[in-house]
Amino acid sequence: MKRKLIASAAIAAAVALTLAGCSGGAGAPTSSDGKTVLSVSVWSMAKTPEFGALINAFEAANPDITVQPVDIAAADYSTKITTVLAGGDSTDVIGMKAIQDFTKLSGEGALLDISDLVTADTSAKVTGLDSYKVDNKYYALPYRWDSWVLFYNKDIFDAAGQPYPTTLTWPQYVDLAKKVTSGDGDSKIWGTFQVTWPTIVQNIAAVQTGKDFLGGDYSFMKDQYNVSLDLQKSGAMMDYSTSTSTKAGYAPLFTTGKAAMVPIGSWMISGIQQAMKDGTGTIKNWGIAPMPQIPGATSVTTMGTPTGFAVNKNAKNVDAAKKFVAFTSSAAGAQALAAVGNSPAYQDAASTATLFSLPGMPTDAESKTALSPDKAVLDTPQAPTTAAIVQIGTDEHQLIMAGQTSLDDGLKEMGDRANSEVLNK
Amino acid sequence: MTASPPTIRHPKITAPQFTTPQLSKERALSARRRARRTALIGWSFILPNFAGFALFTLIPVVACFFIAFTQWDAYNPPVLVGVNNFTRLLGDSNFWISVRNTAYYAFGHIPLTLAIALGLALLLNRALRGIGIFRTALFFPYLTSLVAVAIVFNLLFAPDNGPINQILNSVGIANPPRWTASTEWAMPTVIITSVWRDMGYYMILFLAGLQTIPREYYEAAEVDGANAWQRFRNITLPSLRPTTYFVLILLTISSFKVFDLIQVMTEGGPGRATLVLSQLIYRDGIVQGDYGYASAMSLALFVIVLSFTIVQFKLSERGNK
Amino acid sequence: MSTTTQELAVKMIDVDNPLAATVKREPAYRPARRGRKSPLRVIFMYVFLTALVLVLLIPFGWMLSSSLKRNTEVFAVPIQWIPTSFQWNNYVDIWTTIPLLTYLKNSATLTLSITFLQLLTGSFAAYGFSKVKFKGRDVLFVSYIATIAIPWQAYMIPQYIMMQKLHLTNTLMALILLQAFSAFGVFLMRQFYLSIPDELVEAARIDGLNEYRIWARIMLPLSKPALASLALLTFVATWNDYMGPFIYLTSNDLWTVQIGLQSFVGQYANDAALLMTGSVISIIPIFIIFLLGQRYFIAGIATSGLKG
Q: Any signal peptide, and if so, which residues (chain A) (predicted)?
């Protein structure tokens, strides 16, 4: 009996081996019905509705092309892209999830020059185009451009008897956050919630003060750090250690009415849409205000985050690939993106109207203008030194926010490390 | 060199008087033939595994050693830079901090896991009804998804309202550690979590090892009037030596290249308090595209682990004799 | 002398005959008989073990409870141990939200193939490393083990490039070839074989058995506990592996359970509840394997031991 068991296990394994050998295989450039098959690398497709929307719209406009998405887990997207491109992979279009991916890949020469796609219309209407410009050549086009704004829950402000935020200064923002904070334990409503990433302190400070994030002197971040430290000390904001240890998410906190304000990129709109759709969100009235400004600012300056597509240098279908990339940052692509709650990089009245006509969207004029700030600067300046400096910034940010070092020491250490480890000063 | 027969080299010691030179030569020849035959048999056993291993693991590893002497972005052809990457290592504070942290982790994780796993194996190696359920339960931490482990332990150890600190508060400890939020306590927290996760795994290995100890040894010892401690000391421990050595090497290697758990729990933070070598290799190589430098770091890690392995191997082989 | 050893070997193998298997097995060693007779001690043991297990299983309990929660409740602060309303439909929905059945099938294909090859080649090589003495053996062995010391992140790109050149990427075969011949299995089996007395092998040699037969007829049957542990540990490692399949398998229809679970993790938001549901489901096969393998951890060679 036992021998039989072992024998059947061996047979099962042999069958499994054969199965393993047969399955799989590379995608052919054309499908059986003669259509061009275009492969496009995307991340977490099930959780990112924009890809489905873009692909459907593109296929409808180009009946001779079938798009084959290559779905990759968002968290490890760049690891996989780096590895497969090193192996000479020929996926046609590569999604640029983070600007750092673009910097690395364009620096290696893995992307195709697609400057010919930049028309007069594109340069006039597409925001964030220059994020992908290297030596006056474009190696990717943005399809989304998310500027950082201040989301707020109107009902919480009404209940607290406070006016809705407009263009605030950072000190005004702190005061307001303290005023709308209420409750304890389960009924706690935070005045504001800030992400644990250093971006919300370090990069916004650099963008708004005009100082150099890659320069090696970080004393200019002091005021911005005092904003966050003051907020967490006063209990108007969940403190850093709790946020990290509970992995608190800004979108759930906002959509369940636990946070009165959230300064974040406009991508949260699609998160709110999603939460309303699947019934996990309870928020009813919300609005968008411009990002708070440093005292004395005369216009609204904020950060912008681009998301784009590039063409692989080893692409099999270069023409179709270019067509796809151009489509995603065109008026038609913008419509498709806006319809699922995204802020398209191609900005025109039609897509803005579509975005704000989605159910549950704020209807006030202020919210609409907040999405078009006077100036939105790429959140992290790109250079060969960027990745290492961002890492140092993250290290010191954790220490400062968790109270493991004093603010002055932390900023000094950040500068010292940047100078000695990266800038060789 | 043609191997001269041992009788000629050490005539005083080994040459039996009745052996003619002719005969001893033949004997040496057949000994060599026998040795070659044995080697052939040995290799035939090893080859099926070794071929697959060499082709798919050894070659890439050797490639990694070569890359350590180049500058490579994982895309364009590598450029030879000699020992530049290694001289750069010497002055890299991130490298030294991560070496220190890795050693800290290893010296905490190895003895604790070894002792607890052995303790559990001894505890569960008995004829109790339903013992299988307990063994299964102890293996569960290793099966629980790493993401869930990270979430739960972070919640349990949350500095302000986590259950652990609440308990510590209630027993009169006014300022309990801030665990993963503090540079001092982050590593102990990670070690506690990893010991919890791994102990069931090594317990299984010890349980398998305990099965090899003949019961007669114990019966004889009992007849001789040995108490429980003496039996453990004189029978269990020596008989478990191959298993212990195996567990020790595995633990050493897995501790020195720890990655997943730290990545999901602290990502090396706060600051660089839990930054370990594998993470730095991943960051510099894959995230920042400095693959040559990252390979040099792996080579350094390899040398560290290899020296530990050789010491442990020598000690174990000596113990076997 | 040779006859006694043969008898010995036969006796050892004999334990595994079908008849013997039905006899209730006892563990290798029972602690002092005096202790076993005291019911108070047994009760104390149970209480102690139960308490220990409950404490150890807290995170698993949280995972189980979260798998029955609404998504928003998973990260509730303070920690919520019991769902406010049990979402049993999570266990139904997950099969349609992702093609879980396909993923389970792929995971099973990989895991079975790799475990089988690992056991076969590992125990074979281990015999060479432990019972056949030849020049350079120990050096080879140490170098074998030392390569385990290189973190995968360090050589994953060269390895991928090589597999791409062999046109094996995006096939399950790639992962089987990468993981079936690990040094781990060889190491585990070698350590076990070392504990089997050399005299036994010597005697078999004198009786005229060649090395391959000794491996098949004597070593394999004797090493069931080790084979069982190796099978279990390889099974778990392969089943839970995420990074390997993630890098090598691109087509969605080749994905394993662990990659599939990642689709609940988005760039900005997670389906934490379904992620936990999937994690619980993915444990079930390992749990079954473990229960099936249980008896091998109890009944080893030592039940017959070297008595004779």
A: 1-28
